[in-house]
Amino acid sequence: MIKKKIQKLRELIKFNNLDGYVIPKNDAYFSEFSRPDRLKTISNFSGSAGFAIVLKKENFLFVDGRYTIQAKIQSGKFFKILEIPKFWPKDVLKKYNKKLTLGFDPQLFTNNTLKRHFNNYCKTSFSIKDNFIDLIHKEKTKNSVNLFYNLSNKIAGESVGSKINRLIKKIKSKNIDNIFISAPENVAWLLNLRGKDNPFSPIPNCKIILTKNKKIFFFSCPKKIKKIKKNETYKHFKYCEYKEFSKIISKLNGKKFCIDNATCSVSNESIIKSFFNITSYVDPCYMMKSIKNPTEIKNMTKAHIEDGFALTKFIFWIKNTNKKRITEIDAQNKLEKFRKINKNYLFPSFNTIAGTGPNGAIVHYKTSKKSNKIIKKNDIFLCDSGGQYKYGTTDVTRTICFSKQQKPIKDIFTKVLKGHIAVATTNIKKYKNGKQIDVRARQFLKKDGLDYAHGTGHGVGFFSNVHEGPQSISKYNTVKLEEGMVLSNEPGYYKKGSYGIRIENLIYIKKNKKKLQFENLTLAPIEKDLINYNLLNKNEKDYLFNYHLNVYAKHSKLLNEKERKWLASHI
Fold first, then answer.
1. Residue 324: how many other CB atoms lie within 10 Å
2. Of 18, 215, 237, 543, whose CB has the highest number of CB atoms within 10 Å?
3. Quick check: helix, strand or coil at residue 201?
4. Cβ distance 548 to 505 under 8 Å?
5. Beta partners for 502?
């Protein structure tokens, strides 16, 4: 099937006098969960990030370190797999003597992406009207219409009017007349809106233009706005269809425009540039929404207690069940059942990663009927999962064992744990950004020449996307960490063909006596049977004791006697 699709794509490339065609993961909203998934259509790769280049005789699939193993399994037969940032398209295209003409859909790329990926090693074609992948295989999508809805001020912690006033103050300080907010997650935050357009996120697919005079032009599917149009907060908006974009831009006042270089498409940027000077390429909403207000933190804390309770019951079940044959899918479904007991639980915040043995070494593994394994007694089982609750987003990873493990494995797990604790106990006054903290997480593994090919932590939204910027804990992120930011803390280690280890909690930045520190949101037991306590110092042992004491205090009253006794053994 993939081979035939590539052949059809090459026919289109030849017919249009191109040297190749570029296929991104994202859709026109640049969201993590794309619909349709054109990259999967042409390559069979199902990861959340990547892009492909199909040339006349070669095919390349670019992914980051989380997905190299997965990409080779799913797409290696037809594509050469290259890891970013070790290789970029501009590196691969150097071998050609001439600049190549590559076609792409201008609605699916930003100028920033094109520059970063290709630099001067290809010519690009803007003249392609139809998306080539859609011409080859039009993905069938359900026509069900999910209405957008609003969050009350009581839930969001700040009114729409207050947020808009703060944003306008920021753009006016830079003499900007209009801003195009093209990232749906930012529109959702600014306008306290949510929807059901994504499988794992309550983000509504929409974009807006905001003028310095508070006029809002709202672009979305007309059928989805019936409910919010009746709401007093949103009555004064000018509701538009995307085909009206150029006409509306041409009638706006002012000279200076702000766009988001991460989500403003080549085609939309081109339209804006034909009428205005673009003087800023950073949407302030990213930073504004990254700093959660006290109400958001309170709601997220509640969601994590509820989620931690479900996970605690799941861990007890999987370690103590008498059932002889539990598969990865069985485990995944059982965890979902524990979450569904809670009336505030809505749906998963991403595809659950339930990998046993060698499958655990695939960082973003997704079990299927074909790959599904029975969890064996000697296996190490890695489970990374999360939920969307009313009102909070969770993400947690636990590595679990079912029998006594060899010392080398326990030593590695313990060094991952030491890195996890080092992050959680960071002095944020001294280590002010994710790049500095990332070093602390990896230090114990690196002493043995070990490492992991993903960031140590990502930002997390409030009842929003489970992955949210601009803050993160990684080798490259220099965004200053501030009170109210929420991040994940997830160092790990993966031995190809054998096992995967990861320990993940969500944490937020709290001010305590003028000192900024991380506070755990996630409350679920960490696998004590994989710890070599001889490698922990007193402070690390104290941290672990206090953490499990807090877990016990939050969950014990609602557990049955056997579960409670088991959880008490972690203290």
1. 7
2. 18
3. coil
4. no
5. 492
> According to the 3-state scheme, what is the secondary structure of 203-241?
CCCCEEEEECCCCEEEECCHHHHCCHHHCHHHCCCEEEC
Residue 125 has pLDDT above 70, yes or no: no
Preceding peptide of 36 cis, ω within 30°:
yes
* Chain segment 200-254, per-residue pLDDT in tens: 999 999 999 999 999 999 999 999 999 999 999 999 999 999 999 999 999 999 9
Q: Does residue 85 have a cis peptide bond before it, meaning omega lies within 30 degrees of 0?
A: yes
Tokens of 103: 């076609």
Closest CA to 395 of 350, 425, 439: 350
Angle at 11 between CA 8 and CA 17, to 5 degrees: 145
CA gap 468, 188 in Å, rounded: 13
Can you tell me the distance from the alpha carbon of 477 to that of 446, in angstroms, rounded to the nearest whole number? 20
Distance (Å, whole) CA 75 – CA 69 = 10
Nearest to 508 by CA among 562, 428, 388: 428
**Is the distance from CB of 325 to CB of 372 less than 8 angstroms?**
no
Q: Kindly provide the residue ranges of all beta strands, DSSP E only, lying in 326-395, ordered along the sequence.
A: 345-348, 353-356, 380-385, 387-389, 392-393
Cα 332 to Cα 329: distance, rounded to the nearest angstrom? 5
What pairing do the DSSP bridges indicate for beta strands 468-473 and 100-103?
A: unpaired
**Residue 220, number of CB atoms within 10 A of its CB:** 23
In single-letter form, the type of residue at position 260 comes to D
Surface-to-core class of residue 218, CB atoms within 10 Å of its CB (0-12 exposed, 13-18 middle, 19+ buried): buried
Rounded to 5°, the CA angle 406-443-82 comes to 85
Residues 6 or more apart from 13 whose CB is under 8 A from it? Answer: 19, 20, 21, 54, 55, 56, 103, 132
Q: 124 has which bridge partners? A: 102
Using a pLDDT cut of 90, give the percent of the chain over it.
Answer: 82
Rounded to an integer, what distance in angstroms lies between the CA atom of residue 428 and that of residue 418? 18
pTM, 2 dp: 0.92
Distance from chain centroid for Cα 302: 21
Phi/psi at 109 (5° precision): -130, 150
